Amino acid sequence: MSTVAALIGRLNRTILYPPDAQPILAFSTNALTAVAGDDQLTISAFAVPEDEQLLRIGTLLEADQELMRVISYVPATRTVTVERGADDTTIAQHDASSKIIFDPLFPRGDVFVAVSENITSLFPRLYTVKVETVTTVAPGIAGIEDPLAVSIESVWDDARSNTVDYHGEIVDYHPATGGRAVVTNAHLGVMWVRYRRRLGTATAETDTYVALGLDTQWVNIVRVGAAADLLVGRDLSGTHINHISQVLEAEVVRPGTKTSIALRLAQYRDLLLDRFGKEMSAEYRPKVQMQSWRNNIV
Amino acid sequence: MTFGPLPTASQDRPRGLGYGARLGDLWLRLAVSDDEPLRTYTQDSIAQRQADQSNVYENVLDIGFDFARFDLSGGEGLDYFPRPLREDQRPGDAIRYFDSYNIDTSRHRPGDATSIKLSHITEQWWDSAEAAGDLRFLAASNTHLYATGGTEIHRFDSWSDSVPDTSTDFTPQIVESLAIDSADNGILLLDNGAVYKKEVGSATWTVLVNTASALDDAYRLWIVKSRVIMAKAPTNGVYSLGELTWDPGTLATTYAEFDTFKADVFSVIDADTAILAVTGDGKIRSYVPQADAAGDVPAITLRGISDIPGTEIPYAIGHSLGRVLVLTAVRSASDASTTHDIRAYSGVVLDERFDFIVGELELLKEWIGAAETAYEGTLNHQQPQVVSDRDTFYWLIREGVTDTTETNIWRQDVVTKGISRYINDPVPITDLRANSLVIWKNRLAWTWLTDATVRRVADNYQASGWLISPNINFGLNTEINWVANTLHAIDVANTGDAQIELWVSTDPTAINDWEHVSWTLVERINNQFEGGIENPLLEVSGATLAYQVRMYPNQSGAGTPQLTRTAIRGLPAHRDFIVEIPISVSDSIEVPGRRRQLISGYGNEVHKALLAMQGGHYELQVMQPPLNMRGVIDAILEPVPYISDRGSVGKVMMVRFRGNYVPAGQQSFITGSETMGLGLLGVAILGIGQPGVT
């Protein structure tokens, strides 16, 4: 599934929570509704006895993207009274047997934002190109529905038979269409446009790569970039750093030391950006205007 | 919200939860690293200590333990060494041993070497030629020795001449009792109640009371505080003690009764502040001379009565240097039994506040099944005595050490309170009984009742003697390798072919039998150039070791070797296993496969729990390397911050655990954690002075 959730999952597995640095978690035994007053959370038995000591006033618990703060705890029944939606997270519904993560080092909401921002920021260095047929509703004016379309690469008529140098722009609003439109220098009727698409802003973990204009080969850039954003300033254990180092070394990157590992990740992201940017340059060369030699002779 | 309990429930997969060790039921995470490894080693079972107050009596931890002795004046009866220590941590019983025979362990005189020697031999000195049982009493003044035989009384004036210088015959009357004071005043009682007296410097007995007097039921006399005490036989079952007013100048004879009781009286002595009498009703009676208002001669008055515990009957009493020695007897089995359980008690005469009773009685020794010579439960003519010279009590005990017929002279040192078997008198016939012990001119003498002879301590030495040490265990309940012994003596060469042997036994029951098969000869010295250096013992190993010294005089018997020092050295064969465990007392909860989590205050809780366990006995389980031990938490080193190579800061507490490995399959064998069971925990030492488990 090429969704944002899958990308977050991969980020968690490979960098944020490697196999030997899993977060401390338990499972709820009751469901919670998306109502702030539904604040009684019951926890399953603890695999590690000491984990129970973490249930103190102020401890942050995470269920999905919602953070909850411990207000009181009754050991006999393992019932926690929580403050729902702590730290301005959104109060959401949680099923019974939901994962409850204790004191999350990387709250899932933060990870989502980091991923979303890193997708968005790929543009303008990276973008996708799409070809579509549009139909003019007025001379040179055709509506275009794609909200990610930002500029026209080339335009040609339906038959692609003339030698007219068509070109066009995308405007966010045109009275003829009542919305986004392609404005060209000619033609009436069906025409083809090839246009650039910027990256979309993710709003939910269920958003797909396609919907966001994310090429699957750029996922690694997003992963590394989001990791760099999240790891800055964190006190990571030796095993955690070892793990990230090995992940990066496998990708032929020297990761650096503990204090600079976030910077190295950022550099890696830039390196990947450069690499894909060059590939894009090769694939989508800017259009060069050339005169016909025969015209010049005449 | 308070801090919850530490994890103490059993864990199915402790390593999966990051636990590295379990102490008791407390699960712990280790902080083992290259810098702070888990260390295991072995160590001596006994805690090392500074020997800053040590003397030769102590166990000195240098190379093994040294048991060295030269002064054994504390007497016999110590079966294990060490017994509980005194408050100053020194063994209070270092001058004691277990048993001896024909060995003189007297304190040395100033200037002499401290040593033990053979006792002197005994000999027949004078044969009275009386019928059996007729030689009844010996009595001694400073100048003369008196013996009564049948109708006669004989007087001797020198040890060098065993012929009476005078003899007086009272035929047909039999001399029934005799008393002589140190100045040589004498008084005697005939069986018809006639009383005769003798004055200083005179050998003539003159009549004091004739047979018509009211004294014909008198049966025994004593001279105490220059006064004559007389016991009268029962009238209607009532015995009495009275004073025979006796002035050698006036020959006044008045019997003044001062006490009556329904039991025989055995002995009356002068105990400085009081006159003491032991009676057959189990009492010690205290009498004091009390002046009346008229200023007359103070009348002897009963002041207090001490009761001897149980059915024991005191039959002899002695006094020296403020201390009292009492011998009691009770029939061993039934009334028909001819053997008795004899007990010796030491005590003092309390002061007037306590009516001069004999108090602070302390049991010195029991002779179970001994046939004491004198006490037979009926009135007879034997005279059991405790005699003393300056600082030593002497008395006779008939007991079977080598055979059932012998009699031994026992002694008690008033200074050390130690008692010892002093001199053996080999009675040749089963019912031949030694009786009437006296000291005359620094020499002990007594009678053989049955063949009517007087015997004495001779100048020569016994043909052999032995002394057995206690079972030495140095307070360890563990195997000890006995590696060396030392034997040092003087006067071996001077006495020619005398010799001393050292025997050892690791059988703790061997001390009860000097001929036990386990005794092994390890060293013999018979000239002055031998001994004095450590003699290696090979393959002698046991929880305890006792040694036996056997001494022999030269062939003439005129010289005894003197043993000046014995020593035994041992090394504990058992060593404790020590494990030093670095335990994490940081707040970090580390579990495999999981990122570290800090629980504020958790390390402190573990720290406190461990401190509370210090010195306790626990089972230790270490996961890696796999160790299962039982023992004690020997020491806890306070936590120190530790920075590992990986960069994390932790707190490490070293716990030193001392004990023994638990064999595989016994991990769940619970020995109890409350009272007993310490021995099963593999701890070698159960405390100084406990008898070893054999």
Question: What layout of secondary structure does this protein have?
Answer:
The complex is a heterodimer of chains A (298) and B (694).
Chain A: H1 4-16, E1 25-27, E2 40-42, E3 60-63, E4 66-74, E5 79-83, E6 99-102, H2 108-120, E7 128-138, E8 141-143, E9 149-157, E10 168-174, E11 179-184, E12 190-197, H3 209-212, H4 219-231, H5 238-250, H6 261-283, H7 293-297
Antiparallel strand pairs in A: 1-6, 2-5, 3-4, 3-6, 4-5, 7-8, 7-12, 8-11, 9-12, 10-11
Helix pairs in contact in A: 1-2, 1-4, 2-4, 4-6
Chain B: E1 21-23, E2 26-28, E3 39-44, E4 65-69, E5 80-81, E6 99-101, E7 103-104, E8 117-118, E9 120-127, E10 135-140, E11 145-149, E12 152-156, E13 166-169, E14 175-180, E15 186-190, E16 195-198, E17 206-209, E18 218-224, E19 227-235, E20 238-245, E21 254-261, E22 265-271, E23 274-279, E24 283-290, E25 299-307, E26 313-320, E27 323-331, E28 340-349, E29 358-370, E30 387-389, E31 392-398, E32 407-413, E33 419-425, E34 434-440, E35 443-448, E36 453-461, E37 465-468, E38 471-472, E39 480-490, E40 499-505, E41 520-525, E42 535-542, E43 546-552, E44 562-572, E45 575-584, E46 588-589, E47 597-598, H1 602-613, E48 617-622, E49 627-643, E50 649-661
Parallel strand pairs in B: 5-38
Antiparallel strand pairs in B: 1-2, 1-48, 3-45, 4-44, 6-37, 7-8, 9-36, 10-11, 11-12, 12-13, 14-15, 15-16, 16-17, 18-19, 19-20, 20-21, 22-23, 23-24, 24-25, 26-27, 27-28, 28-29, 30-31, 31-32, 32-33, 34-35, 35-36, 37-43, 39-42, 39-44, 40-41, 40-43, 45-50, 46-47, 48-49, 49-50
